[in-house]
Design brief:
Number of helices: 26
Radius of gyration: 34 Å
Structural class: alpha+beta
Strand content: 15-25%
Largest sheet: 6 strands, mixed, barrel
Strand order of the largest sheet: 3-4-9-6-8-7
């Protein structure tokens, strides 16, 4: 019997090749899109899950409450680490890290720039399971000056030589290191990105009383069966016990929290930690489910649209003895075969598109679906499920026809079937309209961030990283004389950099010294002018005032508002103390965006310390830029002979912060287009079905004088009504979801009501284009042909 089902199914699919091809294309696109989204969501959710003890690893973070604000750190105060292991038996191990450093490393007569350098405690490899290719994980960081390299960095330094025992010179800390270990490159799905690890004990700094220092990421490995929530509840009393007196002096109250390792990537909101976005992941998961739903609805509509063609087949089969269950099984078998064909094509298409998808996502989501058998089983199971569920309703409809009625040419699926098909189209276009709305909002938000006034000029700014070279001041003077260079200044940071907090005391509006933490940027003369930052009150740093380099500070608007001043001029002349040095506020600048528009502008203080500035900021002319750049490079290679030529352009560097959002927008657009395309196939199916049912009516109307336009309008108006209902249903959930997404941006588009109107118009236009082919073809058909059977 089953063999007969298969033979009959393939015969019918081959006989109606156009219908079969249309259905297979829809299912293939839907399953492929769902599968790629499934891979993406699984990958994003897999971060840090490869550690064997990941359920027991927590990052210790803190919220530091001051009299005026609460600061969120991804680390505890440094002295906490010295006490916490001894105080709590719940802790099996504690390890500290400094992350994200960039070092100059000398190997022989060659100088290398190494990004993502970390210093780590001895037990780092006991807590984390990052694979070591060479070296003992128990002792690899045990001794001062120990260095562990990742594979790619070791190959860069030593080629194919064995790196163990080799010597490297770290120019930043002026120490010689010995390579004691070789580790695999950190996996993509790790929130830690490290290329080189230096033994933390080498630095050997006394930080036992630095309660304002939050410089070490601290990870706790809890003992088995420890209740993390109960343990966290003990931390406030612990903080009061070990640091109460010191913290009262600084007027700061740090509150400690535990962040599960597996939640850091997607859920943490701490600076410099969260690189993923759980809202984006959820949105993609919803889109994947919607695309699969649309593909199933599309299959139902296209199949029932063919019911007229297969009615006589059903009647004949019933006359010769076929039962309704047998017919239902036959049609479900056809559905599953279609779905399995789509499954095979989806597997091939997914494998073909995966490299491009990895590129769009900005990471290697998967190295190939065929290298993970479980993926193929999931793809197969999904396809069979679609075949069963999508084929169930058409099987019931087609197997229910009465043989006498259909053989006489009179058959109908009833009003219930018509309503159901229309409801399915409404569901399809509700999703499609919602995706149009979401796509427009996403791109408007991204465009808003790109074009918003940042409060500073980032065009034609060439930034050179001197990495503390002793000749940088002389080099600055040489660069200033190059034709095409308009101005030169130096700083510790430029917009787009991560900023660090500095514990400060600033005189507030009540006249008292207020303890607060502010972002600190160290600059040279001319920084404010060169970047086009607007002065609101006071003056810029000037070489005419010798005290500016030791006793002067410039604040931004947010900082003075934090101190209670309503007028920038009120803050001029007020006292400050930074890094133990007292001085006065000499100026206030208008707020400018040092970071992306996802983050709010934070209190900022500018200090004049030219000798501590490493970044050379060069404003260049547009004209003859290649020659200017070549002259700068030549000067660099002449004067900074032991430094690689590290540079970037300010506009490109700042815009890097939006790469994740750009990728999200591009992926969203592509999947939205796919979903809308499949929805159009479903609408086309219903149009085909409706036209088939009304063939003789159309013929009669043409005979009595109806024009082509009147018939097209007659056939189209019902579908336009369906799209209108879809729009009304789509607006509320779309608004809620996109409002939630936009809440993740500190600065976002305001009124966007017009987006909904535009989406409604676009949905109607897409629907008209989709159904016009069927409507026009029916309208221009010769009525004699339509009425021939009467």
């Amino acid at each position: 019997m089953f063999k007969n089902y298969l033979r009959t199914a393939f015969r019918n699919l081959w006989r109606h090749k156009g219908f079969s091809l249309l259905n297979i294309i829809g299912l293939t696109i839907g399953i492929t899109a769902f599968f790629l989204i499934f891979l993406y969501v699984c990958f994003e959710m897999s971060y840090d899950s490869f550690h064997s003890k990941e359920e027991r690893i927590y990052r210790l973070v803190s919220d530091a409450k001051t009299p005026s604000e609460t600061l969120h750190y991804n680390a505890p105060p440094v002295p906490v680490t010295a006490h916490i292991k001894q105080e709590f038996p719940e802790i099996q191990s504690v390890t500290r890290l400094t992350l994200g450093d960039s070092w100059m490393v000398i190997r022989g007569d060659r100088v290398f720039s190494v990004e993502n350098v970390a210093t780590a405690d001895t037990n780092f490899f006991k807590v984390f399971d990052f694979p070591l290719l060479k070296g003992d994980r128990n002792t690899v960081l045990k001794y001062p000056n120990s260095v562990v390299l990742c594979e790619s960095e070791a190959k860069k330094f030593f080629g194919n030589e064995n790196p163990i025992g080799q010597s490297l010179t770290m120019t930043r800390i002026k120490l010689h290191g010995t390579v004691t270990g070789l580790m695999k490159d950190f996996p993509e799905n790790s929130h830690l990105k490290i290329n080189m690890i230096f033994a933390a004990d080498t630095l050997n700094a006394d930080e036992s009383q630095q309660w304002d220092n939050y410089g070490y990421n601290t990870y706790l490995l809890l003992s088995p069966n420890t209740n993390a929530a109960a343990f966290q509840a003990k931390l406030p009393a612990f903080m009061q016990r070990i640091g109460g007196a010191e913290l009262r002096k600084t007027q700061t109250k740090p509150i400690l929290f535990l962040e599960p390792l597996k939640d850091i990537y997607l859920y943490s909101t701490r600076d410099g930690s969260a690189k993923g976005n759980i809202t984006n992941v959820r949105i993609f998961a919803i889109i994947g489910a919607f695309i699969l739903l649309i593909a199933g609805i599309n299959f139902v509509n296209l199949t029932t649209a063919r019911s007229g063609e297969r009615a006589k087949e059903v009647g004949i089969r019933k006359v010769v003895g076929a039962s309704r269950p047998m017919l239902a099984r036959q049609f479900i078998c056809e559905s599953i075969i279609l779905s399995l064909i789509a499954c095979v094509l989806s597997a091939a298409l997914s494998a073909l598109l995966l490299p491009a998808f990895n590129h769009l996502a900005g990471k290697e989501i998967s190295d190939g679906i065929f290298s993970h058998p479980q993926y193929l089983w999931i793809l197969l199971g999904t396809s069979i499920a679609i075949g069963l569920f999508a084929g169930f309703y058409p099987a019931l409809v087609l197997s229910s026809f009465q043989p006498i009625a259909v053989l006489k040419g009179r058959f109908s699926t009833g009003l219930r079937g018509i309503f159901l098909r229309k409801a399915l189209v409404i569901v399809q276009f509700t999703i499609a309209t919602g995706l149009i709305i979401a796509t427009l909002i996403v791109y408007n938000q991204l465009n808003y961030m790109r074009n918003q006034d940042l409060g500073f000029s980032k065009d034609q700014e060439l930034i050179l990283d001197t990495r503390g070279d002793s000749t940088r001041q002389s080099f600055k003077q040489e660069i200033a004389g190059i034709p095409g260079v308009r101005s030169v200044t130096m700083s510790s940071n430029v917009p787009g950099n991560e900023l660090y907090y500095g514990a400060s005391q600033l005189e507030n509006v009540q006249g008292t010294m207020q303890n607060t933490n502010v972002n600190v940027v160290v600059t040279d003369y001319g920084y404010i002018k060169q970047f086009g930052i607007r002065m609101l009150a006071g003056r810029d740093f000037s070489p005419m005032f010798s005290t500016d380099s030791t006793q002067a500070a410039i604040l931004n608007e947010t900082a003075i508002h934090l101190l209670g001043y309503t007028d920038p001029a009120q803050a001029i002349g007020k006292r400050y103390q930074q890094f133990g040095a007292p001085g006065h506020i000499i100026g206030v600048v208008k707020d400018f965006h040092f970071r992306s528009l996802q983050e709010p502008i934070k209190p900022l203080v500018l200090l004049l310390y030219p000798k501590q500035c490493d970044l050379l900021c060069v404003k260049v002319d547009n004209q003859n830029l290649p020659a200017t750049f070549a002259n700068i490079e030549h000067k660099w290679k002449t004067m900074l002979t032991d430094r690689p030529f590290d540079y970037f352009f300010m506009d490109e560097y700042f815009d890097r912060q939006y790469r994740t959002d750009d990728r999200f927008g591009n992926l969203f657009l592509y999947f939205a287009i796919l979903a809308i395309s499949i929805s159009c196939l479903g609408l086309m199916g219903l149009a085909s079905y409706s036209t088939l049912q009304r063939t003789k009516e159309i013929g009669v109307r043409k005979v009595v004088g109806a024009s082509v336009g009147q018939i097209v309008l007659l056939l189209s108006k019902d579908f336009i009504q369906l799209v209108g209902w879809s729009f009304l249903v789509a607006v509320p959930p779309s608004w809620f979801l996109m409002h939630t997404w936009l809440s993740g941006f500190a600065y976002r588009i305001g009124s966007y009501w017009w987006v909904f109107l535009a989406a409604g118009v676009m949905a109607v236009v897409v629907a008209i284009i989709t159904i016009s082919f069927q409507s026009i073809r029916a309208a221009i058909t010769n009525p004699v042909k339509s009425l021939r059977s009467e």
